[in-house]
Amino acid sequence: MGILEDVLLNARTAVDSVGKKAGKMIDMSKLTLAAADLKAEISKKYEILGRVIFESKQTGKNYDKSVEELIEKIADLQAQLKTVNEAIGNSKQKAKCPSCGAYNAKGSVFCNKCGEKLPYTEQEEISPDDVIDFTEDNFEDDDIGL
User: Fold this and answer.
1) Inter-axis angle of helices 2-59 and 64-91, nearest 10
2) First-to-final CA distance of the chain
3) Can you tell me the distance from the alpha carbon of 76 to that of 98, in angstroms, rounded to the nearest whole number?
4) Which of 12, 43, 63, 64 would you label with 103, given CA atoms 20 to 30 Å apart?
């Protein structure tokens, strides 16, 4: 029974791992869709804003209140998009450039968008056991083909 229990435990662990990764993929997909929806909504608001301003200039009517409301809605949508993009960047384990706000692969030294030097991010530490000692004392004649 011990082997069967080990197999079941390993299977459960594997299923949990796959489930977590699938959950992360679904979350990433939701965030990506939310970003696309926000971008589309912002584009629509810009189009409406342009039409309102055009009509205002053509007819001479005052649409200042409508223009103000559209500008506020666009600013709100842009803030939401920024939040979603930050969540996407964080979930992809990316580093944000302090200069332009673009996301770069963790460990990048320079920003891929603006070229600004990125702040130092702690790299994976190497333990002394992982370092190979290349001194002659650690090699035998058979190791180097003599």
Assistant:
1) 160
2) 53
3) 22
4) 43
Distance of alpha carbon 27 from alpha carbon 123, whole angstroms: 27
Question: What is residue 104's predicted lDDT score, i.e. its pLDDT?
Answer: 81
The DSSP letter of residue 138 is G
Instruction: Give 5-31 pLDDT, tens digit per residue.
Output: 666 666 666 656 655 555 556 677 888
Cα–Cα dist 87/124, whole Å: 23
> What are the Cα distances from residue 37, in Å, to 55, 80, 84, 121, 122?
27, 11, 11, 32, 35
**Other beta carbons less than 10 A from residue 31's beta carbon:** 19
pLDDT of residue 38 exceeding 70, the answer is yes
